[in-house]
C-alpha cells in the first residue's frame, strides 16, 4: 500500500520508500526524499519560476533513464505549470514553486534541470553559465584551474562568478546578469571560452568535437541558449552514488589537488549547509547582477 503523507497542506502518495536506488551505497528512495526535504530551503529558490526538465531514473541510475520536459501524466492540479514557447510549438512544463511540489517531483526520482531564464520571457536570460567538462585523464582539478581564469576574466567585466560541482566529473560556473537576450549571453560566453582556449591552449578547448577533448577541459558555453538547461544546484545526479551538484567555495577551488576533494554525496550536504548556508544565495541579489559589456 502506498503511504499517504501531508506536505505543506497537500496530500502526497510517496511510493517504494525502501527501494534501493543507489546500489553502491544502499541509498534508498526514502533517503532521496529526505535529502530533498532537508535541502529545500536552499534548493527551492533555484527552482522557483524556472520551467523544470526532468531526468528520471525510477529504477536507479543502472535502470532506464529518460529526459522529459512536458508535464508528466498524473501531475496534481495544485502543481504550478506554465506554457513555454518552443521552435516545434508551445509546451506546458512544471514549475516547482513550493515544498509540496518539490516532494511530488522528487517522488518521481528525478534530476532537476533548469534554464538560465524565468517563466515569462525565455528570450531574456538572468544567468550565465559555463559547464567545465574534463576529458580524461583531465579531472575536476584541471577544471578548477580553468574556473579561476574565467572568474578573473568575468570579474574584469564586472560579473561575479560562483562555482558548484556538476555532481558528475566537472565544475559549473554561474553568475547573475541583468536581463539580457539569451543570444547575446551565448555570444559573450562563447567569446570567453575562445579566449580561455587562446590563453591556455594545452588545457582548454571550446569546441564540442570529442576528438579534441582528451586531457583538456571543454568549456561548454552553449548551455546559455534559451532551449538548453543545466543541472540545478543541489540536485542529485543519476550516478553510481548519490552525488550532488554542490556549491563550493573559491578557497576549495583554489586548493583542489584531487578529484575526491570536490566530490560530495547527499550525506555530505547537511554539514555543508550548516557551515556555509547557500553559497549561491548572492545570485538572487538583483542589484549586484552584472551587465554584459
What is the residue-mean pLDDT, rounded to a whole number? Answer: 94
Please report the number of helical segments: 7
Proportion of residues in β-strands: 15-25%
In the predicted model, the low-confidence regions spanning at least 5 consecutive residues are none
Helix content: 25-40%
Major sheet strand order:
13-14-10-12-11-16
Radius of gyration from the alpha-carbon trace, in angstroms: 19 Å
Q: What shape does the CA trace take?
A: globular
Distance between the termini: 58 Å
Sketch the major β-sheet: 6 strands, mixed
The helix-strand sequence is EEEEHHEEEEHEEHEEHEEEEHH
Structural class by helix and strand composition: alpha+beta
Total beta strand runs: 16
Written overview of the protein:
This protein is α+β, with helices and mostly antiparallel strands and 293 residues long. The chain is 27% helix and 24% strand. It is built from seven helices and 16 strands. The strands form five sheets. A six-stranded mixed β-sheet has the order 13-14-10-12-11-16. Helix 1 runs antiparallel to helix 3. The longest helix has 18 residues, at 182-199.
Amino acid at each position: 500500500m502506498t503511504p499517504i503523507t501531508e506536505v505543506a497542506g497537500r496530500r502526497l502518495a510517496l511510493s517504494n520508500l525502501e527501494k534501493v536506488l543507489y546500489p553502491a551505497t544502499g541509498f534508498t528512495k526514502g533517503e532521496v526524499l529526505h535529502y530533498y526535504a532537508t535541502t529545500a530551503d536552499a534548493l527551492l529558490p533555484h527552482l522557483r519560476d524556472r520551467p523544470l526538465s526532468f531526468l528520471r531514473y525510477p529504477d536507479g541510475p543502472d535502470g532506464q533513464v529518460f529526459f522529459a520536459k512536458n508535464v508528466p501524466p498524473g501531475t496534481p492540479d495544485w502543481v504550478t505549470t506554465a506554457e513555454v514557447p518552443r521552435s516545434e510549438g508551445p509546451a506546458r512544463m512544471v514549475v516547482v514553486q513550493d515544498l509540496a511540489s518539490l516532494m511530488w517531483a522528487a517522488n518521481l526520482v528525478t534530476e532537476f534541470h533548469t534554464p538560465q531564464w524565468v517563466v515569462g520571457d525565455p528570450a531574456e536570460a538572468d544567468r550565465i553559465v559555463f559547464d567545465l567538462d574534463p576529458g580524461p585523464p583531465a579531472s575536476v582539478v584541471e577544471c578548477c584551474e580553468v574556473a579561476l581564469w574565467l572568474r578573473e576574466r568575468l570579474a574584469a567585466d564586472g560579473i561575479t562568478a560562483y562555482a558548484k560541482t556538476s555532481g558528475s566529473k566537472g565544475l559549473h560556473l554561474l553568475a547573475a546578469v541583468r536581463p539580457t537576450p539569451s543570444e547575446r549571453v551565448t555570444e559573450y560566453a562563447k567569446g570567453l571560452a575562445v579566449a580561455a582556449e587562446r590563453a591556455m591552449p594545452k588545457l582548454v578547448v571550446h569546441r564540442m568535437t570529442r576528438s579534441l577533448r582528451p586531457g583538456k577541459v571543454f568549456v561548454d558555453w552553449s548551455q546559455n541558449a534559451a532551449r538548453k538547461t543545466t543541472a540545478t544546484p543541489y540536485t542529485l545526479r543519476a550516478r553510481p552514488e548519490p552525488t550532488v551538484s554542490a556549491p563550493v567555495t573559491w578557497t576549495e577551488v583554489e586548493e583542489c589537488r584531487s578529484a575526491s576533494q570536490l566530490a560530495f554525496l547527499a550525506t555530505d550536504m547537511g554539514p555543508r549547509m550548516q557551515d556555509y548556508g547557500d553559497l549561491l544565495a548572492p545570485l538572487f541579489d538583483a542589484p549586484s547582477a552584472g551587465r554584459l559589456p
